[in-house]
C-alpha cells in the first residue's frame, strides 16, 4: 500500500505527509514531518508540544551497554538471556511499545514464565476494574467530533494529557449532522487550577467550571448521580460545590441529546478511584434511560491501550497477568510492578520504554534489563541497556488509539541501525 | 512429498460422493490425481473404516475484533474456569466463551475445523480484527465487513445516489478492510440508536436520514450481487430477540427483491407472540419461507445451555438486552459514526421458559428446512454457545432419541409450545458434510475449500465412525491443514498459521476516493489511507497471508 511504502528512501531530505504521532493516546495522523539530510525531523503541520518533542529526538547512542560499558548487541542479548534464564520469576514491565512489540513481549513472557505489567498499569486498572465489574457505555473520538452537544470533563482539563483534544474533536468547524459546533457546551467538574481556556467556544462562551479537589470527586459524583436518580439530597454543598449547581448540571445532562462524560484515569490519582469512575458509569447509564450519553475514558499513552488489547487476545487477560504457572493467570492487585518489587516477589525486571525518554524504570535491587528509547534519561545504570528503534520514527508499527476502536499504522521516518524491540526480544526468547 | 490417504469412506457433497471408499493423494498442500508410475508415496495413512470429509468451515463465528476482545477483557471469571496449559506444541491460553486467539485456533482444529469467518468486521476496526485473526493458529480466516449504519453509506442512500456509486463504495470497503463478504446488522438501526431511536422496524424511517431498513437491504444486496461477490449480503435483521420478530424476518426475505441474501442466526429472529407468555416459535413459518425462497440462505445461531457471552454490532438491541446480563455487566459502544457494539454476558438455562423455547426453535428450524445447502450449522459463537459445543449440536441433529431425551428435560411450558419431539428427521453424515463443508465453502466463496476434488487445498478431517456422534465429531483421528498433519487423536501435533481469504471486486477507485478523501478530511479523525488495511500488515510476522478468491465482476450496470 502507498501509505506504508511512502518512506522508502529514508535518508534523503523530504516531507512526509499523514504521519501518525504516538506521543499521546489521540494518535493524530494529520501531521507533516520534514526530514533533513542528517535525519533530523521537524513537525511542519499540526504540531503540538508533545508531538514536536517526540519527533525532534536524535539518538545519542545506538550502542548497547553491559554494566555501563559499551557492548555489542549480541553480547547484550546473550547477557539478558542469561539473566532471564536464571530468574525464577521475571517481570516484564513498562511495555511502552506498539503491537508488534507487544506480540514479542507476550512470546517472551510465556517462554520465560514472566509476569507482565504496564508503566500505566495503575491508572489503566482504574478503568479496567470498572469495565470488568459493571461494564460501561462509551463512545469514540469521531462520534464525539460529530455528535457531542454537552461535554462534561471530570477531574482534568484534558489538554495537559491530550493537547489537541478540543481543537480536533470539540471546536471542529464542521460536523456530519449539521450541528453548529460553536454552540457546544463544556463543563469542568472537579480538579483545581485547570487550563480551562480550551473549553471557551469560538463564540467566546466560557465553560462552566465547578472546581473541587480531585480526591473529593467520589462525593461530588455520588451527589450528581443521586440527583439524576431522583433521590433526595439533604446537603446544600459538597466539596465546596453547591448542590444547586449540580442540580443544574443534571438538568443540562438530561436535556442534552448526546452528552459525553470524559475523564482520564491518570488524573484521578487517589485511592480507589475506580469507585469514582464507577459513579461516572452509573451517571451515563441513568441518562441513557431517556436520552443519549456516553463515557469517554481517555488513555492510550505509552501504548497502554494497545498493550492491554494484545495481552487480552493472546492470553485472555489484560496486563497484570502472569505466565509463572503453565497457564495465564490474572491478579490485578497482586501483579502490580510496585507491589511485586516491594514484596520481593520477582528476581529480575525487564523495563521496556520505547516512546518517552522520561518514563524510567522503578528503583530496584534485582537484576534489571532496560530496553527502549535510546535517550532514556536513566538515573541509575541498569545491568543491561539495549536501545531500540522508536516506533513511528525509526520503525513502522501499529498503535491503538485512546478509544481502543481504532488502530493506526505508524510510519518509519528515517533510516536507523537500531534493532526493533521485536528483534531483541525474539533473540532473547530464542536463546532461552 | 506425496501423501496417500488409503481406503477411507469419503463424504464429499461437492462431488456428490456419499460414503464411497476412495484413496486421496496430497502433494504440496493440494489434493492431486493418482500419481503417475514411479512417484513414491512418502507417507501413507490407512483410513480403512474411517470417515473422511473436507475440513469443516464455520461461516459465522466471532473470533476477532473489538467486541470479541472486549468480551475477553471483561470476563476474567470466564477464563479462570478454563485455563489451558502449554504443551509440547501449543502455547497456553484460556478457553470457554471468549477464548484467547491461540486457544481458539487450537480448539477449532481439534474439532476438525480448518476455517472460520468473523462476521462483524467493522471497517474502522478491521486492522484489529485482522491482528487477532492473524494470531489465531492453524485455521484459515476471513471477515465480512459490516456496513449499513455508517454515515457515508446512509448519506448516499438519502441522497438517492446511483447504484453504481453505491457499488463502488461497497467494493472500496471490501478492499480497505480485506473482507470476503458484506454484512449488515440491524440495517440503519445502529445509527438510529445514536439519534436516540430505540427500535427500527423494516419500514420505519430513520429519524435523521429519512430512509428505511428496507432501502438499506435493497441497495446492499444488489451491490453485493452486482459486484460479483460470491457471498450474498449477510444480514442480521432488525428486531433481534423481540417477540413477534418472525414477521420482520419474513418481510426481510422479500425486501431484497430476489437478490441473494443470507439471514444469519435466524433463530434469534424467529419469535412469535402466541401463548400466555406472548412468546412462541415462528420456526415453522421461517422454514416454510426458506424452503420457498431459493435466493435466501440462513444459519441458525443455535443456543445451548450454559454460560456464554453475547457480542454483537447491534448496540440498539444489546442495550435493550443488557438488563438480562449474567453476570450483570455490559459494554455498549457507539463507534466512529461507522458502527457500534454491545457485549452482554448471558447464561441460558434449560428451566427458563424463554431459553428452553429458543433451544427448541433453533432445532425446529434445522429440521424443518429442507435444503441443507441453504441452512448452516452455527451457534453464532459465542452468542448462542461457544463453538466448542458443535459436536453436541451435531448429535442433536443426527440422533432423534438423544434429542427427545434432552427435550423432555426442558421447562414444561416450553415443551408445550414446541413441536420438536414430533419431528422425525435425523441429519445424515452427507447432510452434515454439506452444512459444515461443501455448502459453507460455496456460500462464502471459497473455491478451493470445502471439497476433496483435485486441486482443492488439502484441508481434510478423518473421524472414527461412532454412533455417538458427539464423541465422533469432538475428536477426529487426523486433521490435515494444507496437507500437513496438524491434529492426531483430537490433539494438536503441529501448529501452522492458515491464510486470510478475501475478494477484490473491480470498481472505480478514483471516482469514489475523490468523495471519500474530502469526507474523511472534513468529518473523520483519521486519514483515509490509514483506514485501509494492507496485505503486508496481514502477512507481517508470518502468521497469515492474503488469498484473493475469485470474484466474477459486475454482472450488470445500471444506467
Task: Outline the structure in words.
The complex is a heterodimer of chains A (432) and B (559). Chain A is an alpha/beta fold. Chain A folds into three domains: 54 residues, no CATH class; 187 residues, Rossmann fold (3-Layer(aba) Sandwich); 164 residues, Dimethylsulfoxide Reductase, domain 2. Chain A is 31% helix and 22% strand. Chain A is built from 13 helices and 22 strands. In chain A, helix 7 links the parallel strand 9 and strand 10. The longest helix of chain A has 15 residues. The N terminus of chain A is likely disordered. With 559 residues, chain B is α/β, with parallel strands linked by helices. Chain B has a single domain, classed as Metal-dependent hydrolases (TIM Barrel, Alpha-Beta Barrel), CATH 3.20.20. In chain B, 33% of the residues lie in helices and 23% in strands. In chain B, the strands form five sheets. In chain B, strands 6, 9, 10, 11, 12, 13, 16, 20, 25 and 26 form a ten-stranded parallel β-sheet that branches. In chain B, a hairpin with an 8-residue loop joins strand 7 and strand 8. In chain B, helix 6 packs across helix 18. The longest helix of chain B has 16 residues. The model of chain B has no long low-confidence stretch (mean pLDDT 97). At the A-B interface, helix 1, helix 4, helix 5, strand 8 and helix 6 of A face helix 1, helix 2, strand 7, strand 8 and helix 3 of B. Strand 8 of chain A pairs parallel with strand 18 of chain B, so a sheet runs across the interface. Chain B: InterPro entries: Amidohydro_3 (IPR013108), Formylmethanofuran_DH_asu (IPR012027), Metal-dep_hydrolase_composite (IPR011059), Metal_Hydrolase (IPR032466), Metallo-dep_Hydrolases_sf (IPR050378). Chain B: One of its GO terms (molecular function) is hydrolase activity, acting on carbon-nitrogen (but not peptide) bonds.
